[in-house]
Every structure is written in structure tokens, then in C-alpha cells.
Amino acid sequence: MAEYSAVIQRPKFNLPRATINWWLELLASDTQLIEARDNIDFPRDRKDAPFLMCAASGKADYLITGDGDFSEAQGLIATPILSVRAFAQAVAPQTLVAPEG
């Protein structure tokens, strides 16, 4: 939870405070903490394996990440692995900020 909170607030995302707060509230209210029971080996990036294990053990609806390493992990778990943008487009398109340009 701490990692998700830190990541969503990174300056590179340039998200408005209201959007960040919405996501943090969603995480706090709709996230269930579980103990990982499944052992998954993810040689591409072993530090990411706990996220895969938690998603599989908890039968998560989604694993939301911007980490490109996870694109190789989809075959290891049934949980859909989505980028933040893809998740937002699927469940809350009103939270998306139009790119400036």
C-alpha cells in the first residue's frame, strides 16, 4: 500500500491533488490486505514476485502497475495486469486528465 501511495504521487505523473486523493481513498476503502499463499517465481524481477503472489492468493480483480516488467508476468497469474491509465479508462474515465499540448 505504501508503494502504491508513493508511486501515484510521483511528479512525473503530474496528477492533480484531487485525482491523487481519489485514488488514495479508493485504495484505502476497496483494498483488502491478504497473506500471500502462492509461491510465484518471477526471474525477470524477483522484487516484483510478492505483488504477483498477493494478486494470485487474494484472487485480485486487477493488478495495477506502471512497471513494464509486469508485461511478462501476465501468463503467471489469472488476475488482469493493467496500467493505471488502462484501469482508469475501464472503471473511472472521469478521473483522467487530458494531456496538455
Structural commentary:
38% of the residues lie in helices and 4% in strands. By secondary structure, it is mostly helical. It has a two-stranded parallel sheet with strand order 1-2. The chain folds into two domains: 31 residues, no CATH class; 60 residues, no CATH class. The chain is built from four helices and two strands. The protein is globular and about 40 Å long.
In short:
With 101 residues, the chain is mostly helical.
Entry keywords:
single chain, 101 residues, mainly alpha, 2 domains, two-stranded parallel sheet, 4 helices, globular
List the helices and strands and how they pair.
Layout: H1 2-8, H2 17-30, H3 49-57, E1 63-64, E2 81-82, H4 84-91
Parallel strand pairs: 1-2
The separation of the N and C termini measures: 33 Å
Instruction: Report Rg.
Output: 14 Å
Catalogue the unreliable spans.
none
**Strands of the biggest beta sheet: in what spatial order?**
1-2
Helix content: 25-40%
Helices and strands, in N-to-C order?
A: HHHEEH
* Apparent shape: globular
Sheet having the most strands: 2 strands, parallel
Topology, number of strands: 2
Number of domains: 2
